[in-house]
Design a protein that fits this description.
This protein is mainly alpha-helical. Helices cover 47% and strands 6% of the residues.
Length: 373
């Protein structure tokens, strides 16, 4: 094992220890973001759109330790996600996929995942060609948002042939709208492949970009790349959209990114390159790259994807994860940005940042099959 690999191993151990500390601190609640000074969590009762990432972290810890008590804790947390099956939101993809997929063969998680897949399929709008964002979090229901695509694609794909068709259509419609990758799209292609993160539908005006999030939103590119990678890993989705288009979208999303911190961690808002970073977006991108490296037939590109993914993981581990002598709880992934525009938790530990860092590190060390999560 190289020094770099050993460093990633230490980071994985620290993050897994942090999961145990967090579980003790939050009890039956769901962690959302933690203060960078002392690691104290802001929590929610139902998990909001991030609840699946906490359940997923508990499953990753259970797989890492092999401890039966850790499995029971993860299963109990996943069971608390059940009310989201009936919620009107495309964010069910984030909640119900990432809260169940790391569970492997756990029957309770598999049952919840199946119910979630069928519920999301029932919300598919054939006229719009996608699952609308929904009204569960307030605001207009008929939105197309990039964070309504990751998780939703593999979740839908598990709902049989109809689910696979809806998953492919949902993704390609978002590429039309958010990336302008379809020459026939009414949405102009954004500069440098920067996605339009959210659009609203009006019966007269059609799809119109939303003011928030802005096109420079760090996670816009990362979320869409993750969904594209998941689709490329599933041959059943190739029947519902050209793989070549997905390859092209991946390259667009990986290109022309003006990133600070050595080119590996994006600014939370590309329009403010001197503003806060977003390590959570970097961790999402690393996982997407690890997935792209496993897509068959990529040849030399696969090695490049894998190299870039591990470079991001090393940068996060070396510069952004707290160590034992930092004066703060070890294993915190700092410099995540919840909402730069609102100034909310702009340099914090974020539960989804922790999840994707842990997932990437676990995949590198063979704890989990990245193609199945």
């Amino acid at each position: 094992m190289s020094a770099g690999d050993a460093g990633l191993g230490r980071a994985l151990a620290a993050v897994m220890t942090r999961v145990a500390v967090t579980a003790e601190a939050v009890g039956p609640r769901f962690p959302l973001y933690a203060d960078p000074a002392d690691g104290r969590w802001t929590t929610t009762g139902r998990g909001s759109w991030t609840g699946g990432f906490w359940a997923g972290l508990l499953w990753l810890r259970a797989r890492y330790t092999g401890d039966a008590a850790d499995r029971r804790a993860a299963a109990a947390c996943t069971a608390r996600l059940e009310p989201w099956v009936r919620a009107d939101t495309a964010a069910r993809g984030l909640i119900l996929w990432y809260g169940t997929a790391p569970a492997g063969d756990d029957p309770g998680a598999a049952e919840l995942q199946g119910r979630g897949a069928r519920a999301v399929l029932s919300a598919y709008d054939h006229e719009l060609g996608l699952v609308p964002w929904g009204a569960a979090f307030g605001g207009p229901r008929l939105l197309a948002r990039v964070d309504g695509v990751p998780g939703t694609v593999p979740l839908l794909a598990g709902a049989g042939r109809q689910g696979a068709a809806a998953a492919g259509a949902h993704l390609h419609r978002h590429l039309d709208l958010c990336l302008g990758a379809n020459p026939g799209s009414s949405t102009p292609a954004p500069a440098s492949g920067v996605p339009v993160p959210a659009l609203s539908f009006d019966a007269v005006a059609g799809w119109q970009p939303c003011a928030d999030p802005t096109p420079g939103w760090s996670r816009g590119r990362a979320w869409l790349l993750l969904a594209v990678a998941d689709a490329l890993l599933r041959p059943d989705l190739a029947l519902h959209g050209p793989a070549a288009r997905l390859d092209a979208a991946a390259e667009i999303l990986l290109s022309d990114a003006e990133l600070p911190d050595g080119g590996l961690v994006p600014a939370a808002d590309a329009a403010r390159p001197d503003g806060p970073l977003d390590t959570s977006a970097a961790a999402i991108t690393a996982v997407a790259l690890l997935k792209l490296a496993r897509v068959p037939g990529r040849g030399p590109r696969a090695a490049g994807y894998g190299y870039r993914a591990e470079a991001i993981l090393r940068r996060l581990a070396e510069r952004h994860v707290t160590g034992p002598d930092s004066g703060r709880p070890p294993g915190m992934l700092l410099d995540g940005c919840y909402d730069a525009g609102k100034g909310l938790a702009v340099r914090h530990e974020l539960v989804w940042g922790d999840f994707f860092l842990a997932l990437g590190l676990a995949a590198v060390h063979g704890v989990v099959d990245i193609t199945r999560v």
